[in-house]
């Protein structure tokens, strides 16, 4: 992967969102890279029709020669979300990785468009302070190291929204953005993130205006709702008895869980680049899926297998957060999770109530739970006297250490 400076660029594919930054990037590229052709690429990962409305017209009006809108919704859920779900990855104990997990599918499609149109460069609008610049460029390096990568925020001298708006106004390029925008948001089928505004002060409680995907738990219905999820070898197959595509199932869960305020978190996280940031995330359907999957795991996986899966999840949360999807390490961890998911088959009922998703029922043909063994009543399958020998052997090293310590003190 070549850096952009001092490189001859004839055709560049820009990851385009239709927002202020990428609207300014199109003319900037043409002016600073000897009139290169700019092709816009937009990934539809379920961010919603409102964000995609008129995006091709916006790109062309900003100076792009073409605009490719690629539908990645089903691929995103089936090929990225489901495998990550099997790892149980949760970053720093809370974050369900909504932004992170979308980057590999977007980067892969970005490279595919670039190769299709014969481009010699890729461009993104990530800032020099964020994680996404690393995630995208790490993917580009793995998939298309021969392509030049341009990161305008690391090159130009514009530093504010005012600068970008002035830049577009000077060139009579239309843009719907304004100085009244408070929050920086990133949405996809799995979640929406919110940063900026009052959230930059961790002592400031988020206002109601921050949240857009979920009902305030305080205003949620006073009667709980229930959703039944069916899994086959770790893959969601039915929701409330309905066979839906991966994307449709997630949309269904988003609607149901969002209505009960499920999936809100407010965290301060450690960015890959070394600084801390505060963000609010809404992941309603994902929160239900993760609770259901782990609820089923608890019924099926033995102690050591679950312990290992938890270690995979912890490590993989950093792998995906840090943008290392297309690496041998990620491949190995995903394979481990896939192996452990082979017996994750069964049904789970999740209660939705006042911001909480709670597993209330679970069943599986592969369950290791036995009422005959677990009961406190009389049984003929477990002789409680056997526990004495087990405990003596289990604590043998502690006993030996204590006896050794006593012997030394008596000398």
Task: State the main characteristics.
single chain, 411 residues, alpha/beta, 4-stranded antiparallel sheet, 14 strands, nucleotide-binding, Rossmann-like_a/b/a_fold
Structure at a glance:
The chain is an alpha/beta fold.
Strand content: 15-25%
Structural class: alpha/beta
Main β-sheet: number of strands, strand sense, barrel status? 6 strands, parallel
How many beta strands in the DSSP annotation?
14
Strand order, sheet with most strands: 1-6-5-2-3-4
Quick check: average pLDDT? Answer: 93
User: What sort of overall outline do the alpha carbons produce when their principal axes are compared?
Assistant: elongated
Secondary structure tally, helices? 14
Oligomer: single chain
The run of helices and strands is: EEHEHHEHHEHEHEEEEHEEHHHEEHHH
Radius of gyration, taken over Cα atoms and rounded to an integer in Å: 26 Å
Residues in helix, %: 40-55%
Protein name: Argininosuccinate synthase
Pfam family, one: Arginosuc_synth
Family: Belongs to the argininosuccinate synthase family. Type 1 subfamily.
Catalytic activity: L-citrulline + L-aspartate + ATP = 2-(N(omega)-L-arginino)succinate + AMP + diphosphate + H(+)
Describe this structure in words.
The protein is built from 14 helices and 14 strands. The radius of gyration is 26 Å and the shape is elongated. 42% of the residues lie in helices and 19% in strands. It has helices at residues 20-32, 49-52, 55-61, 73-87, 98-117, 132-143, 161-170, 246-258, 284-300, 303-321, 328-340, 371-374, 386-394, 396-410; strands at 2-3, 11-15, 37-44, 66-71, 121-123, 148-150, 183-187, 192-196, 225-232, 235-239, 264-270, 276-282, 346-353, 356-363. It is an alpha/beta fold. The strands form three sheets. It has a six-stranded parallel sheet with strand order 1-6-5-2-3-4, with helices on both faces. A four-stranded antiparallel sheet has the order 7-8-12-11, with no helix packed on it. Strands 10-9-13-14 form a four-stranded antiparallel sheet, with helices on one face.
